[in-house]
Design goal:
The protein has 7 helices and 4 strands, in the order H-H-H-H-E-E-H-E-E-H-H. By secondary structure, it is mostly helical. It has a two-stranded antiparallel sheet. A two-stranded antiparallel sheet has the order 3-4. Helix 1 packs antiparallel against helix 2. InterPro entries: EC042_2821 (IPR049530). This is EC042-2821-like Restriction Endonuclease-like domain-containing protein. Pfam families: EC042_2821.
């Protein structure tokens, strides 16, 4: 925020003397730089733009003009991690099994037909596809101080595993032969 945005005279003209002095006092306290040269306070503003059909219900009207000189960009897009990564490892197995059963898919592991995807199969897939380190598939939700890692997984993880098994029912045996255990 630029200092000239808040003009002392304008604030005093708009508000009662008590309110104006308090606002200016708070503003001046907030803009005093700290020891590291930064301001003492920071603010986070999130603006959500939603397309509505009725212009009367909109707070802000905009239009798109490809000839415009000024551009707009998303500085940072917030992501709801619970929606992006809804599965624990056990929930992934359950969903993979549900999908495989729904499509009537069986697979082999060590030359035996399998109808259930289990923890051992999961471990092989995690290692081969790097499911814990690829942000498309997994996220460590453990807090900074926690020693134990706690991963959650995306819908893409389920789709990747189901597609791999559907394309090649021997994928787990093949990965085992390549040294993934």
């Amino acid at each position: 925020m630029k200092r000239d945005i808040i003009n002392d005279e304008v604030v005093r003209a708009k508000y009662s003397p008590e309110v104006a002095e308090r606002l200016l006092e708070l503003y001046n306290a907030a803009v005093i730089p700290g020891e590291d040269g930064s301001s003492r306070y920071a603010s986070y503003y999130e603006t959500s733009l939603i397309v509505v059909k009725n212009v009367e219900k909109a707070d802000l009207a905009v239009r798109i003009d490809k000839e415009a000189n000024v551009g707009i960009a998303i500085a940072k897009q917030t992501v709801d991690l619970q929606n992006k990564y809804p599965y624990t490892a056990r929930k992934v197995w359950e969903e993979v099994n549900r999908q495989l059963q729904k499509h009537g898919v069986t697979f082999t592991y060590r030359d035996r037909i399998q109808d259930k995807f289990n923890n051992h199969h999961w471990t092989i897939m995690v290692k081969f596809y790097n499911l814990k380190t690829d942000p498309r598939y997994g996220y460590n939700r453990a807090t900074k101080g926690e020693k134990a890692l706690s991963y959650v997984y995306s819908q893409q993880t389920v789709e990747l595993i189901v597609d791999s098994i559907r394309r090649n029912p021997h994928v787990l045996t093949d990965l085992l032969a390549k040294g993934f255990r």
